[in-house]
Amino acid sequence: MTKELIRLKVNGELREIAAPAEKLLLDVLREDLSLTGSKRGCDDSSCGCCAVLVDGVPMLSCVAIASCYQDCEIVTVEGIAPPGELDPVQEGYAVAGGAQCGYCTPGFLIATKALLDHNPNPTLEEIRLALSSNLCRCTGYMQIYESVKLAIERAQAREAAKTAPVGS
Amino acid sequence: MAPHSVIGKPLPMTDAPGKVTGLGKYADDLVAPGMLFGKILHSPHAHARIRAINTSKAEALPGVKAVATGRDAPNPYGILPIGHDECVFALDRVRYIGDNVAAVAATSAEIAEEALELIEVDYDPLPAWFDPLESMKAAADWIHESKPHNIEKEYHHEFGNLEQGFANATFVREEHYYAAEVTHAAMEPHSTLAIWEPNGRLTVHSSTQVPYYLHRTVSEVCEMPMSQIRVIKPLVGGGFGGKSEVIPLEVAAAVLAKKAKRPVKITYTREEVFYAHRGRPITIVDLKVGLTREGKISAVAARVVQDGGAYCGYGPVTVLYSGALLGAIYDIPNVKYDGYRVLTNKPACGAMRGHGTVNVRFAFEAMLDALAHDARLDPVEVRRRNLLRAPCITVNGLRVTSYGLPECIERVVERSGWAQKKGKLPYGRGVGMACSHYVSGAANPIIRSNMPHTTVHIKVDRDAAVTLYTGASEIGQGSDTIQVQIVAEVLGVRPERVKLVAADTELTPVDLGSYSSRVTFMAGNACLEAAKQMRGQILAAVAKKFGCETRACACASTKRRLRRSISTVLWWPRAPTPRRKTLVAAISRAPAWARLPLTVTARRWLRFPWTLRPVACTSTASSRRTTAARRSTP
To answer: What pLDDT does residue B562 have?
Structure first.
C-alpha cells in the first residue's frame, strides 16, 4: 500500500504522518495522532460522534479524506481549550449533566462550540437546529440544551470578569 | 439542618472531566504494544450445517498471526446456567445470518479483512425459520436439537380463579397485539482489547455491563482459571441491556489473544452490532381482560409468543418477566399467563430497557383504554379504581414495598393539563395515559448461590484519603457518582475527597453488573453500610484518644451541620480547599485515627425482594412527551 506524507494542522500544532492517500481523517486522528476523543459511532455518517472543527465549521471526520484538509485548521475535542483548562462549553456539559455515557459528547461539544463561536447568544430553536446532526442514545437532549444554556452563562460571566474595571 | 449535604444535590458526574475533554478512554481508544486487529467471519446463511472449514490460505497471508475456529474454543456458554447453547465460533452449524464462524488476528485491520475472504467454508443449507408462529410448528430441522419444536421455554401460570373472574365482569374484550423487534443502538459499538501477558495471564478490557460474568465466561471458554484472568471495564458508551451478557467478540478477542500470544483488539462495525443484537424481541400478545361494572379489573388472561432469535441468551427471563409483571401494577385478583419463547434463525434477542415488560405493558394499557371506553370511564379514572394498596403482596406473590403510583398519576394529570386537553385538542392531536413499572434490585442472582450480590471496600489512608473499591459498572447511568455521594455523605467529607476504583476484577470485589436497575439499590446499600462501619471505627478511635464517649463524636461536612453542644472540631487533615470545609467533627486536633490505615468491607445480600418503581407519563399524538417521566438509564 503506497503511503504519502500528510501534513495536518491539528489543535494548533503541525503534525506530519505517512498514510495512504485515501485514509479517513477520523482514522488519522485516532490511530496516527492518538487523539481518541473523536469517536466512531455509526459507520453511515448519521451520529455525529466524530465531528471536528475544520476552519471553525463542524465536519464529520468519518467521511473526510485526511489528505484533502492539509491547508485547514483542524480542532478536535482535545483542542477546544488549552491543557488543564475547560472551555465554557465543556464546563456547561460537565456541570449540567450534558454528558451521560459520554460517547456522543465530543461531537456535541464541537457542534456547540461552532454555534457559540458564531452566535454567542442563540435561541433554543437555534440551539436545537445546530445540534440536530448529533444523536444521543441516552436521550439526554433536555440536559444537553440546559448544558448549552449554562455554557452561554459561563462564557458571559468570563467575558464580564475580563472587561470589569480593575478594583471594582 | 438539611437532612443531607451531598445526597440529593445535583453534582457533576465523577467521570465528567474525562468525558468533556476527550481524554477518557473507552475500549476502542485503548492500544497495547504489539497489538493485533481482530476480525470475525460471519455466516451468510440463516441456517446451515458446516461440512468443512479450510483456513490454510488465510493463515499463509503475510501479517496474519492467528486464525481461530470452533475447534479452538468448543466450550459452550451463555448468560443463564440453563442456556449454555452458544459457542464463540460455530462448531458444526450456523443459526442466523451473521453467526460467528471464524476469526483472524493480523497486524492491520485491512489484512485481517483480506484474510477472512481466504477462509473457505463448505455450507450445507437447512430450512430456516423466521416467523415465531411458524417456527413453533416445525416438525424437523430444529434450530437446537435439544429444543423440540423450537420452543426455548414456556411458562403456564394461573393465580386466583379465572373463570369466576370473567363471570364477574360486565365488560370483556379480547384483542391481538403485535410489537416489533427493537435493538439498543448504544452510540458505542462493542469493543474488546484482550492482552496476553508474558506470564500466561490474560487481561481483557471490554465494553460490558457485566465484567464479572465476562470474567467467568472467558475462564470457561479459554479453560483458564479465573485467577489468571483480569477483566477491566473502561468507560462504556451506553448499554441499555445490549452489553449485559457476554457478546461473541469479547470471547473471540480472548481466544485470539491466547492463540497469538499477543494483544488483540476487536471492535464491531455498526453492522456487526446488529448481528450481536440481544434486543427486545418481536412480541405477539393475545390478551383477554374483564372489567366489572364498577371499573375494577376482574380477570386477565394473556398468551405471549416472543421471537427469541437463534440462541437462548436471557430469553427465559424475558418471557418470565412478561408474565410476572402483568399482575403487579394494578390490583388484579385473577390472572393467567401462557408465555412461549421461540427460537428462529435470526440474531439472538436479550435484555433491553424494561426487560420483558414493555411490549406486554403496551398491550395491557391499550386494552385498559378500550375497556374504559366500553365502561364510559375516563382513562385516568379506570386506573385510579385499580390501584394496589402498598405494602402488599400481589396475587402472583410479588411483594410491593413501595408504590407511589397514585401520587404519580395525580401529578401527571395536573402537570399535563389532562382535564383541559383530553378530548378537546384540535383534530390530529391528543393526550393519553399509560402506566408502567419495573422491579428493581434483581432479587435473584443469575447463577443461584448464597454469595453476596455486591461487595464494596472502603479504605481511609494515612492522609485521610478515602478510596472506594466497588465492582459496580458505570455505563453512563451515574453509578460511580451515586456511590461516591453515599460514602461522602456518611463520612462527612466532600465528594471530591472520595476516590473511586471500579469494575476491575483484580482490584474490586464482585458485583453482578449493571442491569435490572439494581446498582443503586445493591451497591448503594453496600456503600452505606461500609461507610457507617468506617465512621464507627473513626469515631471510636477519636473517642478513645480524647477520653470521651463515641456518641459524643460526629462526622459532618460543615461545622453548621453539627450539634451545638459540640465545641471542638477536628478537621480532616490536609483538607484540599483553603476554607477546609471538609472535616470530621468533634473534640480537638491531632487526628490519631488518621495514622492508622483502615479498611472495612460491607456486602449486600438481598433483603427486600421486589420493590416496585412506578412510571407514568402522558404523550401527545405528535409523540412529543409533555411530561418527562425520568432520566434515561443508559
So the answer is: 59
> Is A85 at the interface with chain B, CB within 8 A?
no
> Per the domain annotation, does A122 fall within a domain?
yes
CB B116 within 8 A of CB B109: no
Domain that holds residue B309: 135-183+279-441+610-620
The residue of A78, A87, A100, A104 whose CB has the most chain B CBs within 10 angstroms, and thus the best one to mutate to test that interface, is A100
Does B157 share its domain with B101? no
Q: How many domains does chain B have?
A: 3
B627, part of any domain: no
The reply to whether residue A101 touches residue B236, judged by beta carbons under 8 angstroms, is yes
pLDDT value of residue A129? 97
Give the range of the structural domain holding residue A37, as residue numbers without chain letter. 4-79
Residues B313, B278 contacting (CB under 8 angstroms): yes
A70 and A119 fall within a common domain: no
B48–chain A nearest CA distance, Å: 29
B583: β partners: B571
ipTM over 0.90: yes
Same domain, yes or no: A9 and A72: yes
Q: How far is CA B81 from the centre of its chain?
A: 18
Q: Which residues 6+ apart lie within 8 Å of B213 measured at CB?
A: B79, B245, B246, B446, B512, B513
Residue B137: all three cell numbers together: 410448528
DSSP secondary structure letters along B340-362: EEEE-SSPPP---SSTTTHHHHH
Q: Are residues B116 and B145 in the same domain?
A: no
C-alpha cell of residue B546: 480524647
Domain C-terminal end among A33, A57, A79 = A79
Using a CB–CB cutoff of 8 Å, tell me whether A26 touches chain B: no
Beta strands (DSSP E) in B292-405 are: 297-309, 335-343, 392-393, 399-400
Torsion, CA B107, CA B112, CA B118, CA B121, rounded to 10: 130
Q: Find chain B residues with C-beta within 8 A of A43's C-beta.
A: 269-271
pLDDT in tens, B222-274: 999 999 999 999 999 999 999 999 999 999 999 999 999 999 999 999 999 99
Distant-in-sequence, close-in-space partners of B179: CB < 8 Å, separation ≥ 6: B280, B282, B283, B284, B285, B358, B359, B362, B363
Q: What is the CA radius of gyration of chain A?
A: 17
Q: Are the beta carbons of B237 and A99 separated by less than 8 Å?
A: no
Q: How many CA atoms lie within 13 A of B169 on its CB side?
A: 25
Query: Do B211 and B295 belong together in one domain?
Result: no
Interchain contact A78–B (C-beta under 8 A): yes
pLDDT at B2: 54
Would strands B264-267 and B191-196 be described as parallel, antiparallel, or unpaired? antiparallel
